[in-house]
Structure formats: structure tokens, C-alpha cells
Design a protein that fits this description.
Elements (H helix, E strand, L loop, with lengths): L5 H21 L10 H25 L6
């Protein structure tokens, strides 16, 4: 198990909310096995992009390293 930073935990929270919105469009009662390839790809892309964007926002808020 990887020890996640506070920023990574926060980014996961943002990602979960984005995935929730997408699952709302797909349908919460849809079993994973019943998802189309496009829906699985959309979930993966949303996960990656959501995490990336949240981490980028966190990095932009951090002070510059003095070296």
C-alpha cells in the first residue's frame, strides 16, 4: 500500500465527485460487467484527468522551491 500525501487524498476526493457525476449519467444501477467499452474508457479517463487536474491545482498553490 502506498502512503498517500494529504494533497493526494484531497485529489482522490475531487476525482470521486467527478466519477459520481459520470456514474449519474451512466446509471448507478449498471453493473460493471454491463458497461460498454466506451463507458469504461470514460470512467478511466475521468479518473486520470480528475486526479491530474486536482494535483495541478494543488501544485499551483504551493510556494516555489527556493533552489
Amino acid at each position: 500500500m502506498v502512503d498517500l500525501t494529504e494533497q493526494e487524498h484531497a485529489a482522490i476526493g475531487v476525482t470521486i465527485r467527478r466519477l459520481g457525476a459520470l456514474m449519474g449519467e451512466i446509471g448507478w444501477d449498471t453493473r460493471f460487467a454491463d458497461l460498454s467499452e466506451a463507458e469504461v474508457r470514460a470512467l478511466i479517463a475521468e479518473s486520470v484527468e480528475g486526479f491530474r487536474e486536482a494535483m495541478a491545482e494543488t501544485a499551483a498553490e504551493m510556494p516555489e522551491v527556493p533552489f
